[in-house]
Amino acid sequence: MTSEFAVEMRDVVKKFITPEGNEMAAVDHVTMQIKNGEFFSMLGSSGCGKTTSLRMVAGFEWPTEGEVYIEGKAMGHTPPFQRKVNTVFQNYALFQHLTVYQNLAFGLEMEGAKEDEIKKRVGRALEMVQLTGMDRRKPKQLSGGQQQRVALARALVKTPDVLLLDEPLGALDLKLRKEMQLELKALQQQLGITFIYVTHDQEEALTMSDRIAVMSKGKIQQLGTPVEIYERPTNKFVADFIGESNFLEGKIKSISQNEASVFVSSINAEVVGLPISKGLVKGEEVIVSIRPEKIHIAEKDAINQNMFRATVTNTVYIGVDTKVFVDVHGAKLKVWEQNRISRLDPKSFYTVGQEVWLMLLPENTIVLRKD
Ligand SMILES: Nc1ncnc2c1ncn2[C@@H]1O[C@H](COP(=O)(O)OP(=O)(O)OP(=O)(O)O)[C@@H](O)[C@H]1O
Ligand SMILES: [Mg+2]
Predict the structure, then answer these.
(1) Parallel, antiparallel or unpaired: strands 246-255 and 285-290
(2) How many whole angstroms from 244 Cα to the centroid of ligand 2?
């Protein structure tokens, strides 16, 4: 029987005893369901439990509580080699004294595959990662990106249903990393293999993933598509961790089924018509979150609603955007304006001390629970 889900973690906890003798939960009640053929990423800063989660799926660690399922089967203490997953580790650990061919053939030989079969499969795996013809080289005779591809091919040669990748592009420079991101994504789509990808790089996760689990301190903070996570973060941590945001503290003044008006004390004004998530109540202290590129600067008060007088305190031209820092009644906000037209006239940019109007569009302004 095949399951809808390639991999599931159900309420998984992993506790470690630290050398200091304390117990700590590296993974703290994590539940996630990864669909067949999905590119799924775990994203979070160092120490949040990404590698530990991946190692439990691979079978190198066992959960303290909860269960890992692969294709619907509870894994219990099933050893790694009996799980239909393969791992690409961060420090890809190629055998330096073996050729590319031998690196790939090694795992198949261990399985007792015949020579003809090995040749065919190694050839196909090298083709997938575009390294045909490099099979006699040793790792040292390859660039970093090529070595990374050998590591990938070595995992692919065993035709796993699920590939686990732990920061596989971590060692590459930015340009190569971006190239490899697109290549990996294309390869995943072409092969239809489920990828579980670990990274601490938000842009990488947004670029490659069908869905992302944003993690912090062993817990999932939000799980959703890149667009959901960026456009509708469900808490301040996610809004802050992915991209940039302005945060304003406020109190819900009135609320209907799907809209709220929030009084923001720092700017001494009410922001109206904001879409809300379930469970917020009138009078509740909240945080209003808005991304810097979603605030509009206007010369005058055009709509008489959600527009606030502001003073420009600084501007930074960075080519693509101009970063405009403003002060609204003492509250500091940042606004990114895209430089759509090319101009050299300094007068066409905002100047420090200039008075402007800020416009907050309700659909871009999010009300978050204060936690
Ligand atoms: N074997 C272990 N014994 C004790 N503590 C551990 C062990 N392995 C991991 N930890 C702790 O568990 C936490 C999570 O570690 P993990 O390696 O999963 O983090 P990570 O999200 O992969 O971080 P990074 O981005 O730095 O690789 C860390 O605080 C780490 O120190
Ligand atoms: Mg890690």
Answers:
(1) antiparallel
(2) 24
